Amino acid sequence: VLFRSAVCNHSPWCLSLVFVLCPLTSREPSVSTIIREMNVLHRLAPILRRNPQLCITFRTLASSPQRQAGMARLSPTKLYDSYLRLLDERPVVTKGVTAFILTSVSDVIAQTAEKKMHGEKGTPYNWRRVIGFGTYGGVLCAPCIHYWLKFLSTRVAFQSSAQTVGAKVLLDQGLSAPFWIAIFFLWTGAMEGKSKDDIVDKMYDQYPKAVKANWVLWPAVMGLNFAFVPFKLQLLVSNSVSLLWNCYLSAMGHAASKHHGNKLAEHH
User: Fold this and answer.
1) What's the helix, strand, coil split of the chain in %, to 5?
2) pLDDT in tens, 65-108
3) What parts of the chain have a pLDDT lower than 70?
4) Furthest CA-CA distance within the chain
5) Would you state the torsion angle of the CA atoms of residues 60, 62, 65, 71, taken in this order, to the nearest 10 degrees?
6) What letter would DSSP give residue 53?
7) Per-residue pLDDT tens over the stretch 222-242
C-alpha cells in the first residue's frame, strides 16, 4: 500500500521508506544492503512513476518466504516467548529493565497530563524527574520486590488456597506497600534536589493520602495476582497496573512540591 501510494503520488521519500522496510522484514539485512537498495530506488523512481503497474512486483515480495519468516520472528507470540526466556535466565535484570521503562513512561504521562491541566503545553519535560522515577521503579523496587514475592511464594502457605492468598495480601499491603510508598517520596525528592525539610513536608502532607489510595486499589490487584498468576509474571502484572498507579504517585509528589513552594512564597 505504501509503495502504490508513493508511486502514484510521486513521493520519493515514501519509496525510500519502502525499500528500507522491505529488507528489515527479511533475514538480517546489513546497512550496505539498505543503502544499495535505496540508491537503486532513486535511479528507478522515474520509470516506476511512468509504470504504476510495476507495483505488482511488490505483491510477490510481500508473500515471499523470507518476509514471512521475518514477520514471524517479530510476532507477539515470539516476543512473549523471548521475554519468558529472559525471565528464566536473568529474572532480576529483566524485571528491573521492565520496571524502569514502565515507571519512566508513567511519569512522562503524568507530566503530559499536568501540562494540559495547567495550560503549560510548551514547557519542556523534567527529565531529571523522569530518571528519578525510573530508577525508583527499576533500580530500587524491582529487585527487592522480586525477592519479596519469591519469599511470599515459597514461605507463605496454608491448608486452603484462600487462606494463603489472604495471608500474602495482608503481608504485602501491611508491610511492603507502606514501606515502598515512603521510599518513593524520599527517593524522588532526593533525585529532584529537594531539601530535607521539603521532603519531610511532602511526606507529612501526602503520605497518608497515598497509603489510603493504595489500600483502595492494590489489595484486589494483588489478590488476583497471587491467586492466578505464576510467580515469575507477578511483578510484570504489578508493573502493568502500576503504569496508572505511578502516574497518580508522580502527580501527587509533584503537586506536593508545588504546594510547598507556594506556601514558601506566601510566607516570604
Assistant:
1) 85, 0, 15
2) 655 555 555 567 888 888 999 999 999 999 999 999 998 998 88
3) 1-75, 253-268
4) 77
5) 180
6) G
7) 999 999 999 999 999 998 898
**C-alpha distance from residue 215 to each of 59, 170, 220, 265 (Å):** 55, 11, 9, 34
> Left, alpha or beta for 28 (phi > 0: left; psi -120 to 50: alpha)?
left
Decide if 17 contacts 42 (C-beta within 8 A).
no
pTM metric for this prediction: 0.67
For residue 47, what are the CA distances in angstroms to 19, 43, 50, 58, 89?
16, 8, 5, 15, 52
| Cβ neighbours for 67, distance < 8 A, ≥ 6 positions apart | 22, 25, 26, 61
State the burial class of residue 118 (Cβ atoms within 10 Å of its Cβ: 0-12, 13-18, 19+): exposed
Residue linked to cell 503504569: 243
**Which residue type occupies 197?**
D
Residues whose CB falls within 8 Å of the CB of residue 46, separated by 6 or more in sequence, listed in order: none
64 contacts 58 by C-beta, under 8 angstroms: no
Q: How many CA atoms lie within 13 A of 155 on its CB side?
A: 7
